[in-house]
Amino acid sequence: MKTIDIARRAARSLRSAKTRTILTSLAIGVGAFTIAISIAAGEGARQYADTLIGSNINPRALFIVKDGSLFEGGASPLSGSGIREYDPDVGMTASGASIKLMTQEQVDELAARSDLENVVPTYSPSVTYMVFGDSDKKFSADVAAYDATITGEAAYGTLPPLGEGLAADEVVMPESFATTLVEQGVIDTEADLVGTRVVMTASRPTSTATADELAQAYATGGAAAVAALSQPETKEFAFTVRALSKQSATALVTGTSIQIPVSAAREMSEYTTEGTPAYQRYVGVQALAVEGEDPDEVKAALLEDEFYAQTAEDLQGVIFSIVNILQGIVLGFGVIALIASVFGIINTQYISVLERTREIGLMKALGMRGGGVSRLFQFEAAWIGFLGGVIGAAIAVVLGILFNPTITELLGLGEGNYLLIFQPLPLIGMVIVLMLIAMLAGWFPARKAAKLDPIEALRTE
């Protein structure tokens, strides 16, 4: 009997036992549904991450450090409570970890390289307080240097194009900050903040006065002069708000700080750290590979000089790794469901063999060989796998289309971005794999049917 004829006969046999066939297919459909959803979620997350990186970061951007452990996800060898030799280039991160910091000399070395441009250290400016316009209310907020390698979206005003920085007297503020200023009565509307003058006051501690200095101060100015010795020095930095940044669904960083020009960030950072171990010490630098240079090749060249770098592609890879782990967890549940359904197929086919013993004997008596009988039952199992895969995939696609807008809104992915993205080829591949698994599961009952003696089978009541 031809293969196509065996396939058709297998389909007719399943139609004669519709209820059992549907129930077994639904068992496979549960696993197929879970796998289809996990594949779609993985694809959606990858496309979103690709959009996130591609629309925010200059592909030539590199983040360069001296401590490679920052990119390895493990603890720095400098961390720990044990005693070690003092190193002025070792500093603490915000999380309390000890890392090798970059010196100004090393920054200058990077700036002099022919394969890098726009080398900017990660300044850490600190502001004691700030005032807006004519208001006498003081506010505090985090301040950071404007990163020209990352694009943003403006709610009011205009942001510089990718690759261009702010002017020396401009700042960009998060839109959420404007809401607070409206509530405090500093401005009437959020749009009024654009063009407003901002004066930031930075301070640095003074050195401890000696007994002679205290005595001299008291002799010349009394208690007020002594108090003045202990007051920190302050310096004002004046800016104008250029734009309010909008928190976009495809923004790589959240708007939690006021962004100031790099030159002002450097001046402010050096002013507040002068005389301390943190003076001109940086976690790393932002830089661009020179036009025409491959960022990966620049990264390799930096490693030869004991600098560690991360490219935009590396950052994308980190995000993809997280997505793959989460996708693998969901796929695991689908595989568990499939394992359970495999036993269901074996049980169904064994029952079918027992119920059709006389039919099998008749087919063998009429000339069908054992191999043909085996293929018949394997094809029946394949049909069950096909139906289960199609049912599971169809339900997943329908539910995905229906709930994608809701999921997008709940997760704040932004218009046009969806978590569940179904592609035909992976779904077709999944159905084919399920058919092969079902055929494998049907091999044991098929083998039993192929070995039945036709005479004994025909005697069966």
Fold and architecture overview:
- With 461 residues, this protein is of the alpha+beta class.
- It has three domains: 3-53 and 318-459, no CATH class; 61-121 and 283-292, no CATH class; 123-280, no CATH class.
- Helices cover 52% and strands 16% of the residues.
- It has helices at residues 3-15, 18-56, 69-72, 104-111, 175-183, 211-230, 262-273, 295-304, 312-355, 357-365, 370-411, 424-441, 443-450, 454-459; strands at residues 61-65, 90-92, 98-100, 102-103, 116-121, 129-132, 142-145, 153-157, 170-174, 197-204, 233-246, 257-260, 281-282, 284-289, 308-311.
- Strands 6, 8, 9, 10 and 11 form a five-stranded mixed sheet that branches. Strands 5-14-1-15 form a four-stranded antiparallel sheet.
Number of domains: 3
**How many distinct helices?**
14
Strand segment tally: 15
User: Strand content of the residues, in percent?
Assistant: 15-25%
SSE topology string: HHEHEEEHEEEEEHEHEEHEEHEHHHHHH
Basic shape: elongated
Distance between the termini: 27 Å
The stretches of 5 or more residues where confidence is low (pLDDT under 50) are none
Largest sheet: 5 strands, mixed
**What's the gyration radius in Å?**
35 Å
Please identify the structural class as seen in this structure.
alpha+beta
- Average pLDDT, rounded to a whole number, is 78
Which range best describes the helical content: under 10%, 10-25%, 25-40%, 40-55%, 55-70% or over 70%?
A: 40-55%
Task: Write the topology of this structure.
Elements: H1 3-15, H2 18-56, E1 61-65, H3 69-72, E2 90-92, E3 98-100, E4 102-103, H4 104-111, E5 116-121, E6 129-132, E7 142-145, E8 153-157, E9 170-174, H5 175-183, E10 197-204, H6 211-230, E11 233-246, E12 257-260, H7 262-273, E13 281-282, E14 284-289, H8 295-304, E15 308-311, H9 312-355, H10 357-365, H11 370-411, H12 424-441, H13 443-450, H14 454-459
Parallel strand pairs: 7-12, 9-11
Antiparallel strand pairs: 1-14, 1-15, 2-3, 4-13, 5-14, 6-10, 8-11, 10-11
Helix pairs in contact: 1-11, 2-9, 2-11, 2-12, 9-13, 11-12, 11-13
